[in-house]
From TrEMBL:
A GO molecular-function descriptor: G protein-coupled receptor activity
Species classification: Eukaryota, Metazoa, Chordata, Craniata, Vertebrata
Keyword Membrane: yes
Transmembrane annotation, as ranges: 56-84, 105-128, 156-189, 201-219, 239-257
Compartments reported by the entry: Cell membrane
Presence of the UniProt keyword Transferase in the record: no
SUPFAM superfamilies linked to this entry: Family A G protein-coupled receptor-like
Protein's UniProt name: Olfactory receptor
InterPro entries attached to this UniProt entry: GPCR_Rhodpsn (IPR000276), GPCR_Rhodpsn_7TM (IPR017452), Olfact_rcpt (IPR000725), Olfactory_GPCR (IPR050516)
Record-linked Pfam families: 7tm_4
């Protein structure tokens, strides 16, 4: 379901000329990240639940952590870029095409990916210096960085310190870049005299804000739990929601709350009907 929903958004953006704008370029990139983000954890989780083996090697576990952190970091960074895109579109509409041209969009996405690769690689390099017992039990559905640190036989002070420093510096900066533009955006929207313009601006921002709140809310609830050492059922449910359900919710939010996506979907259905009926006519002839 996650792959189908996100792939449908990517196909609509690629095939519909009305959606080939910077805003939907970032949305298509977000859909691609969601497909990768869910594919890192969900297939292995379903395989373990089906076979009931529940075994994973240390190398595979660290690999899963690397890609999970990389894609999660890429997603929150891209959400910050999308906030900047909305800021330019609403607060400086006359300069939008000059500021957010295609070269800028590609550079921003590549920058997001490069920062995320370095960010996740630093964590993995410090993980490789730790030692573990032959068999460890992780109380979760997939390999997660805090869980792996808890079962290490060596001191993890440097790893935890690294997580805190990077979370405060990098995470705090991305958080500010995501939400600060909306202060100016909301102020600009409230000054608009036309109700139609205000409605359109709120519509484009509401979908993005909904996705941001879902992603940040699930992440904060998952990793800011004071009882992190005690993996109760609620912790497992939140980790499942954060890793598997968030990428499923994102395409639903954009498809249900975005008028242009819905119109594009209807146009695609009409094209499919025309193609289907033309094939039937050809077969009958």
């Amino acid at each position: 379901m996650t792959l189908t929903g996100n792939l449908l958004i990517v196909l609509l953006i690629c095939t519909d000329s009305h959606l080939q704008t910077p805003m939907y370029f970032f949305l298509g990139t977000l859909a691609c990240l969601d497909m990768g983000y869910s594919s890192v954890t969900t297939p292995r989780m379903l395989f373990d639940l089906y076979t009931q083996k529940m075994l994973i090697s240390l190398q595979a576990c660290i690999t899963q952590i690397y890609f999970f952190v990389l894609l999660a970091m890429s997603e929150i960074s891209l959400l910050a870029v999308m906030s900047y895109d909305r800021y330019v579109a609403i607060c400086h509409p006359l300069l939008y095409t000059q500021v957010m041209h295609w070269k800028t969009c590609v550079v921003l996405v590549l920058g997001v990916l490069m920062v995320s690769v370095v960010f996740s690689l630093v964590h993995v390099l410090f993980l490789l210096k730790l030692t573990f017992c032959t068999i460890n039990t992780l109380q979760g559905f997939f390999c997660d960085l805090p869980q792996l640190l808890l079962v290490s036989r060596t001191d993890t002070f440097i790893n935890v310190l690294l997580i805190l420093i990077i979370a405060l510096l990098v995470g705090g900066s991305i958080f500010a870049l995501t939400f600060c533009p909306y202060i100016i955006i909301l102020n600009t929207i409230m000054k608009m005299q036309s109700k139609a313009m205000r409605s359109k601006a709120f519509s484009t921002c509401s979908s993005h804000l909904t996705v941001v709140f879902i992603f940040y809310g699930a992440g904060l609830f998952r990793y800011c739990n004071p009882n992190a050492k005690d993996y109760y059922a609620v912790d497992r449910v939140t980790s499942l929601f954060y890793a598997a359900l968030t990428p499923l919710v994102n395409p639903l939010v954009y498809s249900l709350r975005n008028k242009e996506i819905k119109i594009s979907f209807k146009r695609a259905l009409c094209r499919l009907k025309i193609t289907f009926f033309s094939l039937i006519v050809d077969v009958r002839h």
